[in-house]
Amino acid sequence: MSFDIWQQGWCQGAEKCESPNFGLRPPDALIDLLVVHSISLPPGEFGTGAVQQLFTKQLDWEAHPYYQSIRGLEVSSHFFIERAGKVWQFVSCEQRAWHAGVSNYRGRSNCNDDSIGIELEGLEGELFEAAQYESLAQLCLAIGQQYPIAHIAGHEHIAPGRKKDPGSGFDWALLKKIVAWPPQYFPES
Ligand SMILES: [Zn+2]
Q1: What is the pTM of this model?
Q2: Which residues are within 8 A (CB) of 55 and not within 5 positions of it... i.e. 6 or more apart?
């Protein structure tokens, strides 16, 4: 899968699934941060399509008891990587997706303004698939060709204490090895 062809912030190697949950970035936003998340709906169940439904405001809140706890939640991410490595895109990288919430990193707050969010299908604290690392790494490199990326961090690093994803099961060393970016791009371990 090639992620090298882009059009107006949309990566052509990803399956496009447009979300209404986005806004404008500040005009002077320097998009230099990638934020890695984990999500699965219901938690721990994979391939249900519910993450895509959540991000496109199509989720039936009555379909599972867990959904009562997130009822009305309006969120999105630029990208979502399924267990087998398939990549979805919901929001153009030119736009501000709603994945970070209250956050602070590299001396700047409100990380949604100037970051790109990538969700991995999974459960925080648990392991991810080799195919997901491969897609994530290729996507990171392709994004790095389009935007001046200088940092990559987990949601847990930009919202410490509030968020725990992707968690201890995410192998930062493996990602570091595949993308071969300088160590200073990565969170301090
Ligand atoms: Zn997250």
Answers
A1: 0.97
A2: 17, 19, 21, 75, 76, 77, 80, 90
Identify the active-site residue in 82, 119, 121, 124.
119
- Does residue 178 surpass a pLDDT of 80? yes
For residue 6, how far is its CA from the centre of ligand 1 (angstroms)? 25
119 is catalytic: yes
Question: 51-57, long-range: CB within 8 Å, 24+ apart, which pairs?
Answer: 51/80, 51/119, 51/121, 52/17, 52/80, 52/88, 52/90, 55/17, 55/19, 55/21, 55/80, 55/90, 56/17, 56/18, 56/19, 56/20, 56/90, 57/19, 57/20, 57/21
Residue 115 CA to ligand 1 center (angstroms) comes to: 13
Q: What is the pLDDT of residues 19-49, one digit of tens each?
A: 999 999 999 999 999 999 999 999 999 999 9
Report the number of secondary-structure helices (H) and strands (E) in the chain.
Answer: 4, 12
- Measured in Å, residue 127 CA sits from the centre of ligand 1 at 16
**Å from CA of 165 to ligand 1 middle:** 5
**Dist. CA 189–CA 171, nearest whole Å:** 11
